Amino acid sequence: MKILMLISSLDIGGAETHLCTLSAALARLGNEVCVISGGGRAADSLSGAGVRHVTLPLGSRNPISVLRSYLAIRALLRRQRFDVIHAHSRIAAYIGERVAREESICFVTTAHAKFSTTPLKKYMSEWGYYVSAVSEDIAEYLREAYGVDRGRCEVIPNGIDTRAFSPSSEAPRGGKRILFVSRLDRDCSDGAYALCRIAPRLAARFSGVTVEIAGGGEEYNELCGLAREANRTAGYECVRMLGARTDIGSVMRQNDIFVGVSRAALEAMASGAVVLLAGNEGFFGCVGEDNIADAARSNFCARGYEGITDEKIFSSLCTLISMSDAERVRRSAFLRKYVLENHSIESCAEQTLGFYRRARERCCMGRGDVCLCGYYGYGNTGDDTLLSGAIARARAEYGDGICALSRNPRRDRYRYGVRCVRPKNIFSVVREISSARCLVFGGGTLFQDRTSLRSLIYYASLADIAARRGVRIELWANGLGPIRSVIGRRISARVLGKCAHLGFRDKRSARLAIELGADRRKIVLEDDLAFMVVKEVACISKRAEWGRYAVFAVSGRGSGKELDTLWDRVRNMSNSGLLCVFVGMYPAEDKKISLGMSEAVGGVYIDGLSGGELTDILRGAELACGMRYHLLVFSKIAGIPFEGVGSDPKIRAFCEERGGKYIIID
Length: 666
Fold this sequence. Notes:
single chain; alpha/beta; Rossmann fold; seven-stranded parallel beta sheet; 27 helices; 47% helix; 19% strand
């Protein structure tokens, strides 16, 4: 496989080390790897590993530098075809995504840490169709902060070169050599400052103790001043500032105790040191057999724990220094074994190759097979799930050349791995329909005039364009109606007459189609497309802490009587001792009312869920009750009792045909 890696620079840092180590491992497996970066100390290590390196200003925000990088990468791709582009930093991903889209190349990213979420930086963030995260909490952060679908985010832990990071062959040295490794910038140097402050106390209590601080950055000079002061107080050089180093493996071999976080902590574990996790994001403490699983959840970064203090670090270091040689050897052996079994670079490289293959299978940007039309890209959980189901069915029946009409093409292009255009961009829409073999109305209730006659006319015009160009037209698991106006019935009848396949998701819609004059032979009853794609996913909720609960979904379009009816069910469930969990399936319409009801009964509100995540929450509920059609669908998939509220005919039809309870509005 030919792989192009992009990163802003190759200076000293966790992401940079990860890229270099991974690239070398992929090259050893027979892949051709090229790295483009802004250069740095770590770049020299690539040539010895058989990895080509190209220097471009990928770390610069200067528009001229961005344009220069874009043009150079595009020229490289046109001279030499790559199978995948893998970006590891924000600006590199911003440039790489545009080149990948233009050249129709699979594009993926890796999230190494939490990113800033300012509006501009959020806009500059491109995540690719598939995203890898180095830990579960980073994957969850991407979902919450950036809306990355958990279904397209894989966790691939950091890989450590256990040959470069290995224990010393010397006998135990008494455990008095302490090492801190990190960039020394303001956001990651709290541990170094704490060590400088407590070093004289450690020296007074343990004769001959030393602290070495490796790394460079904006805080380096100030830390050097603190180190000199600590040495004067201790009466000897107890704190040594090593600066930025590329030989961290040999430095770690010479030390007994490591203080720090993240990848450096894993490298220290592989090198035979005992580890104290402490950093700007929190203080975890000493890592051992009893708590290593907890440490791993945050990628050994101590995220979610209380902040570090001098006393916490001093007390923990006293414990580690006082540890017997036998216990230190036993613990260091356990930590190295853990890294070998869970974080070897060989395992990381194999997982990454599998990640590339899955991304390439699903990342299909070509034209010419099918154009999907629906109410996509509006942030509605149900409709987003329908798009995912329609894509899965289109791939199975027509191939990989798929285009979807989405209000949010920038998000959905890489969320689903298909071409996307805006429905209002009529020239692009006509071009996509004309080049397709089939126009598909993929799920939902598109042909109705209850909400708007304009939308009915729009979808009918797309069918007219397809018919004039000889493009096959199909309805997949659609609802139909209500259609109350005379013109609406005429338009719908004309569209149904042009369709080669009429798939309806309920009998009521099929009966209405026959009433409008549709050919009975073309009519098929089909499951909602959500049934195709909703699978069991890892629990992202705190449902274990909720105890007994019921799930509710409000519709912001509901009438006063409909909302009153749902509110009665909420109060009944709350009075019965159930926690009321409100899910915002269409937050733009539902959030305000849902929050009001939730606060009134001491409930929980949650939104931004995928269909799989919502189904996961529903599996633990005792009841689901809602005004949103797809809450009922997901409840049926989850296998729990459900109740429908509302005057929309599809709510009543689903309850009656699928075994739910329909609550008649008083």
